[in-house]
Amino acid sequence: DIVLTQSPLSLPVTPGEPASISCRSSQSLLHPNGYNSLDWYLQRPGQSPQLLIYLGSNRASGVPDRFSGSGSGTDFTLKISRVEAEDVGIYYCMQSLQTPLFTFGPGTMVDIK
Amino acid sequence: EVQLVQSGAEVKKPGESLKISCEASGYTFTNNWIAWLRQVPGKGLESMGIIHPADSDARYRPAFQGRVTFSVDGSTNTAYLQWNSLKASDTAMFYCARLSGGVSFDIWGQGTMVTVSS
Known about the structure:
The structure holds two protein chains of two kinds.
Chain A lengths: L3 E4 L2 E4 L5 E7 L12 E6 L5 E6 L3 E2 L7 E6 L2 E6 L8 E7 L7 E2 L3 E5 L1
Parallel strand pairs in A: 2-11
Antiparallel strand pairs in A: 1-3, 3-8, 4-5, 4-9, 5-6, 7-8, 9-10, 9-11
Chain B lengths: L2 E4 L3 E3 L5 E8 L8 E6 L5 E8 L4 E4 L8 E5 L4 E6 L8 E9 L3 E5 L3 E5 L2
Parallel strand pairs in B: 2-11
Antiparallel strand pairs in B: 1-3, 3-8, 4-5, 4-9, 5-6, 7-8, 9-10, 9-11
């Protein structure tokens, strides 16, 4: 299986300030079609996960533009330009290169300082 | 509205069987794979496998092969996850999710909590 690591695992944030989460893959997620098979999900407390970013850098429908994804190959980053209180939760990266052996990172818990 | 609605929480004893459901609405059920995912309380997410509603083609993560069975009922737009003999280690929250474009889980069910305890 492809192994994903995330850093940091815990991220206290101040509302209005930027935040950044890193995801690193044990092998390249660059598909021959040129897209990176890496998604970002947010699981708010007590809720199901929701898709934020797909194929490395594409915002899902309804996701605020303060969220952005970047990176290629084995190194990816999720950035929040200005954190809001509703952004607290656990952020997971997930690879979809090896279907159906999707794997998730361990998660980054974001909470308010 | 596109949604997946899962069946309610279950409490079972070791050795019992169980079938939980995931009803799709708001889109053409046979167009997308449905995935099942497990989340042990306080832990991360793990994909169990996928099933295609058009032909019931099911693909399991090796760790779950033989332990669970995926099925679908196209007449009710419902996917199922089944165990024949539960273990205490099966205690977890189970989610179904729609696979979009073969790469992303864009719609999730609300989750079904399964507790297995003697």
